[in-house]
Design brief:
Strand content: 25-35%
Largest sheet: 6 strands, antiparallel
Radius of gyration: 15 Å
Shape: globular
Helix content: 10-25%
Structural class: alpha+beta
Order of helices and strands: HHEEEEEE
Number of strands: 6
Number of helices: 2
Strand order of the largest sheet: 1-2-5-4-3-6
Number of domains: 1
Mean pLDDT: 86
Low-confidence stretches: none
Length: about 130
Amino acid sequence: MLRKGEHQIIASMVAELPDHLRGAVERQFDACNLAQRAVDGRTLNFYKMSFFFTKPQQLQTVLYGKNEDAALMRVSVSIPGDAETIQVTLNAVAGKAFCVSFSRPLPEIRDGQSLKITTVTHAWQSSFPAQ
């Protein structure tokens, strides 16, 4: 289960994607039912798992690009009460939005707090150009 801040950031990143990628990435995240958080809290990997198999299942929607692994979006995030921003990257691996990495662990976001995206870098352009 995603934490409140993680969800806010990922939703904002997906919303920033261009039309030719946004719908596919939304469908991929909707199909995923497991978010695996690294022990250090700096990485989230997304999987579609089945009740009947122990291996991740293939997604029906695939991103077609020039590279096997590529960044889709990079953002800087400002957190209320925290002087240092967090850098976050959404990466595609083997045709799916798979990994979200943070420059440091994301602190807990309390009710009423909102994160602010301060910088957006569209990293998808070299690997996933518009058709």
